[in-house]
């Protein structure tokens, strides 16, 4: 799905000075995914845990680096689904999500999940690259003249199953559409308009645009 959105950012020296920090896992580079993603997850979750959903969350706006994840799984020797927020960088501690896991996920338990040690992460960067290549074709279908490119990934979600044919990757690409200055309550801000395009892929790496 294509969405046109905007972000207002206050222009100040403090904002410019606070952009540093650990970069997390670069989802567009397979070597970064291979080196850091599984290791970061296994720092807090057993490799034998059965994973049902994995949501990789990026750092702020217009970033390709995931520094946090939401993981739904059953621990070894456990019987109940649990959902945890698991950091992918830094020295933060994981946090268990409040409340119960959704009924939809519980219904999918019959299909089974995938052990963390056995999840195939090898398609992540490739899936994103295929989606970026599709942006050129989308430009021709847009009313306004826009140079679409990858400026960020808002999230990368993997729905896992014991049946490989039912494994689904879902992700959204952000592409800037221009910026302008705006004044509100006497405060100068930069308003950045951007598009967000949704994609999904199967376990074989077949990527399609979700309208």
Question: In summary, what is this structure?
Answer:
The chain is about 20% helix and about 40% strand. It is α+β, with helices and mostly antiparallel strands and about 210 residues long. Mean pLDDT is about 85; it is low at about 5-20.
Describe the structure.
- This protein has 211 residues and is of the alpha+beta class.
- It has helices at residues 13-17, 30-42, 103-107, 124-139; strands at residues 2-10, 25-26, 50-58, 65-74, 82-87, 95-96, 114-115, 152-159, 168-184, 187-202, 207-210.
- The protein has one domain.
- Helices cover 18% and strands 40% of the residues.
- Strand 5 (82-87) and strand 6 (95-96) form a beta hairpin.
- It starts with a strand and ends with a strand.
- The relative contact order is 0.21.
- Mean pLDDT is 83; it is low at 7-21.
């Amino acid at each position: 799905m294509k969405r046109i959105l905007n972000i207002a950012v206050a222009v100040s020296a403090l904002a410019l000075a606070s952009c540093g920090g650990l970069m997390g896992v670069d989802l567009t580079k397979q070597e970064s995914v291979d080196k850091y993603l599984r290791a970061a997850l296994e720092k807090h979750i057993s490799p034998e845990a059965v994973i049902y959903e994995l949501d990789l969350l990026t750092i702020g706006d217009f970033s390709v680096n995931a520094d946090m994840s939401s993981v739904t799984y059953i621990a070894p020797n456990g019987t109940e689904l649990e959902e945890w927020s698991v950091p992918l960088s830094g020295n933060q501690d994981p946090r268990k999500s409040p409340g119960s896991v959704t009924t939809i996920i519980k219904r999918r338990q019959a299909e089974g999940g995938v052990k963390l040690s056995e999840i195939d992460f090898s398609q992540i960067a490739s899936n994103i690259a295929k989606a970026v290549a599709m942006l050129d074709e989308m430009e021709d279908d847009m009313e306004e003249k826009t140079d679409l490119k990858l400026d960020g990934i808002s999230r990368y979600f993997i729905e896992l199953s014991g049946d490989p044919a039912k494994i689904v990757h879902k992700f959204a690409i952000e592409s800037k559409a221009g910026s302008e200055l705006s004044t509100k309550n006497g405060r100068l801000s930069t308003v950045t308009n951007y598009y967000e395009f949704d994609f999904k892929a199967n376990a074989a790496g077949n990527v399609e645009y979700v309208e």
